[in-house]
Structures are given as structure tokens and as C-alpha cells.
Specification:
Elements (H helix, E strand, L loop, with lengths): L4 H5 L13 E6 L3 E7 L19 H17 L8 E12 L8 E12 L2 E9 L5 E12 L1
Antiparallel strand pairs: 1-2, 2-4, 3-6, 4-5, 5-6
Length: 143
């Protein structure tokens, strides 16, 4: 299943300037998701991170992965209209530099999801297929 930006907005509450995924290319609700973020260079954080040598902040890549995971969890009928709150980040590793013009592929596979609490393995790849971020993320679903 694929979702465009407007369909993503129907599932997660994030909006500009903090909606950090552009499209969902694969979705198996409650199981796994693949999403994309196209970095144009117009994103405001590149102005200060770092002037003259813009680099995508690692914490925002983690947030991109979390938003992709939120789509996966909140697409389930029983979670529609709810919010996925970040509950934890473990074993985060940044393995490469991401710059304006890059496209990130964001993959989250749910490892555990019960009673509104879940965790997943998250990986971001650059357009060359190289892993640039890996992490274990956890979340809580609430009204």
C-alpha cells in the first residue's frame, strides 16, 4: 500500500514545519512501513547546521523514522485519530553524512506492539542504499 502526503496527514497529526516524511511507498499496518523524505536544501535547519556545509541533523532523521513508524501504528483502525508518542530511542547509530539533495528511505519494522505500547527496528538509507541511521524506537499510543 502507498500513501501520498495528504493521506499521511489523515493518519498522523504532524504538520509543517514538522511533518518530516513525504510519502509512504510500502505499508503493512502494524507490521512494517517504508517511507521517503526528499531533502531539497530548502529545509530551515540547513541554514544553521552547518553554514557553508549543510548536514542533515541526526535527531531529525530519528524523528523521520518515528513518524514513519507512527503511520504504521496509527493506520490500524483501532488507532485512528490517536497520537503516537515517542517513548524511547535505543542503540541509535549514525553511519553517514546526509546532505541537501539526498533522498532518505525510512524503514521501520514493528518488533512488539501490544496494549498501545510498541517498539520497532528503524533504518534509514541514502539514495545509494547505504545505511545512514539505525535505531530501536519505542512509542505509546494515546488519545
Amino acid at each position: 500500500m502507498q500513501l501520498n502526503l495528504e493521506q499521511i496527514k489523515e493518519i498522523i497529526p504532524h504538520r509543517d514545519p514538522f511533518l518530516l516524511i513525504d510519502e509512504v511507498t510500502e505499508l503493512e499496518p502494524g507490521v512494517r512501513v517504508t517511507a521517503k523524505k526528499h531533502l531539497t536544501g530548502e529545509e530551515n535547519w540547513f541554514q544553521g547546521h552547518f553554514p557553508g556545509k549543510p548536514v542533515q541533523p541526526g535527531v531529525l532523521m530519528i524523528e523521520m523514522l518515528a513518524q514513519a513508524g507512527a503511520v504504521c501504528a496509527l493506520y490500524l483502525p483501532e488507532n485512528r485519530g490517536k497520537i503516537a508518542y515517542f517513548a524511547g530511542i535505543d542503540k541509535a547509530r549514525f553511519r553517514g553524512v546526509v546532505q541537501p539533495g539526498d533522498t532518505l528511505t525510512l524503514e521501520v519494522e514493528m518488533v512488539k506492539f501490544r496494549h498501545g505500547i510498541g517498539s520497532g527496528n528503524a533504518v534509514a538509507y541514502n539514495q545509494d542504499g547505504k545505511k545512514v541511521v539505525t535505531a530501536e524506537i519505542s512509542f505509546a499510543i494515546a488519545d
